[in-house]
Amino acid sequence: xxxxxxxxxxxxxxxxxxxxxxxxxxxxxxxxxxxxxxxxxxxxxxxxxxxxxxxxxxxxxxxxxxxxxxxxxxxxxxxxxxxxxxxxxxxxxxxxxxxxxxxxxxxxxxxxxxxxxxxxxxxxxxxxxxxxxxxxxxxxxxxxxxxxxxxxxxxxxxxxxxxxxxxxxxxxxxxxxxxxxxxxxxxxxxxxxxxxxxxxxx
Length: 202
Known about the structure:
It is a single chain. The protein starts with a helix and ends with a helix. The radius of gyration is 32 Å and the shape is elongated. The protein folds into 2 domains: 1-33; 42-199, Ferritin, core subunit, four-helix bundle (Ferritin), CATH 1.20.1260. The chain has helices at residues 2-31, 41-75, 79-105, 117-127, 133-159, 165-199. The protein is mostly helical.
């Protein structure tokens, strides 16, 4: 009989320990922070806004380079400037097509193909320039400035921790092209300035 009582007491103690353990685990489950399985809503909203801003700005950058280069085909005097302008038109039209594809893959709206006021002013800066060496130099200088802006835009977005994967890939792909364009614009600008000085010696 004594042995039965001892065993019963031991059984009760074991049940109590198990019950206590279950209660502690339940409390831990209630107090533990939830595992993060998805990005916070604010982070998602920020990433979406920055992505749309990048798409818009990248589109504007290509559009202004296309429009000013179309002017250069008509008004530039240097064959080198005209060849450069045609290269920009071809490359940036392709860049816009790639941007549309990247935006679509990211389930975003396609970029507008209408220039904003800021970029229209860049075009207007060339409108009144006569078709001479001054135009060639002004066009080249505008392209250097425009590509500096574009390179910064693409670099900043590529480094952004919130960057959308498809657009980051697009930015990384396009940056080498932008660097080449800037270098070429600098070169033809220097040549145009020399041509202008030769045509109008002081």
